[in-house]
Amino acid sequence: PSTAASTPTRMGGRYSHLPAAPACLQSRYFCLTFRAPDRISLIASSQDTLELIRSAIAEAYKPGIRFEYDDHGSWSIILAGCPFKIGSSRSEAIAGKLAGIAILRRLLSRGWRAVVSSDLCRSNDLGTWFFSRTEPGVDFADESDRTSSICCLALSSSDRLQLIGFPASLTPRVVDRIRQEWSCGVQRGPEAVCNGQAVELKLHGNPWLASEQEAVDARQMLLAIVREMHRWGCRLYLSSSLKDTTDSLFFLCPRRLKPPVEQLLATEMFVLSLNRRDRLRLMGTSEQSEVEDKDCNQLMDVIRECVLNYWPKGLRQERDWYGARELHLTGSPWWTEGSDSVHSRLLITLLLQRLRQIGWRVVETVDVCRRLSDKSILLFERSPPRSTLHCCISLNGTSLLRFINAPEDVVSAMRHVVSDNYARGIKSEKIYAGYHQIHLRGQPWSAFSGNDHMHGRHLMLAVLSAMRQDLGWSLVCSADVSAKYHHSDSGQDYPLDVHSWWFSAPAASLGNNCVD
């Protein structure tokens, strides 16, 4: 529904009405958030978009919708059951994933493409999906995407994988890859569950809680699955949390699966993993060759160079770590606050920029581990080299925005975006650790303060639109690079920072006020 049709409520207190979305934004962008245990909240959605989502839920989610209501300018859909609750039954959780598949497929068929999934709240909220409207032949890499099917690989519990809605011909191939890559073996399965709508494998060990050898194996296994899917033309579309701290991976599959591309080598994809408080690990799959070793050496040279140049505390040591190449950084770049948190995000920014220059692009980021202290892994694939500049919009604490390595025109534009689209207003601005910081009123990155978190999503929707449509920047990824979290003996633990966003733009189109 249009926010203009909502009944306004008085500003002040713990709840306030979202600003009306401009028509130009509503026709091109909207977002939806999954919230435990049973809620889907929409911002800037039109009535037509709402009808698409209702029809997708009716198609795929048998328990159905309990009720809906206008929530201060956002629209909330409350589902029957508890599909997004930690500890919900297997059937409820899979039903929630099936609803997600149906929503993605129905929206894609009408030109709504998922841009990113992002975790923007420290507790309660799960993934927020941001969508952009495309026209035939515009912005679509492949027009056949509109008719693609979508399937889901869910990382479940601490030791399970669920293949939901997979093409029948792909399931045994993916199962074979799992058996090859997971050295601890499969304890049970593959087993058809939920009336044949999913296939589940229970693995020996605990890959989603693992450390040391099992942690490396789990990431290599995940990379091997993504590579196998890509071999058959099924591209990783979105990675998102729909229930707990691990992600579910959604793939676009063509109507007719393509034969495998045998020349696709392990070097064509790799994983960069942020571990503990101070480690960077580079890993491929278990398939190795001399050619791949040369590529690995080049990648390590680039990563080492970036660490030495852009992490002020330097590099402590390098080593082989159960088949992964590990750099141990001095200090705690993933467990920081204050100026160190700016330096750690600048390091990632310039590392992404340098890797793009030598022909590697981010496919997706994935939260693999159930521990709150763990961070995203970044999946890369080979791509034509491009000279680009990268910047980071860093969301910190409960109310900070920092624009790291952003040109002056981006900072200026973002100040106007915040002023025009964040109803709570700006508390203060300053230069912090060399970069512009905006301190927002309220707590937009927390769910503990009324509906501030919905105002935060409304703001980030406007940020995404302005960066892409007005300024010509592309969103590279949304990722968690902070290990810090709050522990409560009596309540819920939660991370102290949420995801940050990385953008890129062609270097030739920008000035020279970024680091290059």
**How many β strands by DSSP?**
26
Gap from first CA to last CA? 44 Å
Morphology: globular
| Strand numbers in spatial order across the main sheet | 3-4-2-1-6-5
Q: What share of the residues does DSSP label as strand, in percent?
A: 25-35%
Structural class: alpha+beta
Radius of gyration: 22 Å
User: What proportion of the residues is helical, as a percent range?
Assistant: 25-40%
Q: Please state the average pLDDT score.
A: 86
| Largest sheet data | 6 strands, antiparallel
How many helices? The count is 9
Low-confidence stretches: 1-13, 136-141
Structure description:
This protein is α+β, with helices and mostly antiparallel strands and 516 residues long. The protein has a domain at 24-262. It is 28% helix and 31% strand. The chain has nine helices and 26 strands. The chain has a six-stranded antiparallel sheet, sandwiched between helices. Strands 9-10-8-7-12-11 form a six-stranded antiparallel sheet, sandwiched between helices. The chain has a six-stranded antiparallel sheet with strand order 15-16-14-13-18-17, sandwiched between helices. Helix 2 (47-60) packs across helix 3 (90-109) and helix 4 (171-181) runs antiparallel to helix 5 (212-231). The chain is globular. The chain starts with 22 loop residues before the first helix and ends in a 10-residue tail after the last strand.
List the helices and strands and how they pair.
Blueprint: H1 23-26, E1 29-35, E2 39-43, H2 47-60, E3 65-71, E4 74-79, H3 90-109, E5 112-118, E6 125-133, E7 149-156, E8 160-164, H4 171-181, E9 186-193, E10 198-203, H5 212-231, E11 235-240, E12 248-253, E13 269-275, E14 279-283, H6 290-310, E15 315-321, E16 324-329, H7 339-357, E17 360-366, E18 377-382, E19 388-396, E20 400-404, H8 408-421, E21 426-432, E22 435-440, H9 452-470, E23 474-479, E24 485-486, E25 494-495, E26 500-506
Antiparallel strand pairs: 1-2, 1-6, 2-4, 3-4, 5-6, 7-8, 7-12, 8-10, 9-10, 11-12, 13-14, 13-18, 14-16, 15-16, 17-18, 19-20, 19-26, 20-22, 21-22, 23-26, 24-25
Helix pairs in contact: 2-3, 4-5, 6-7, 8-9
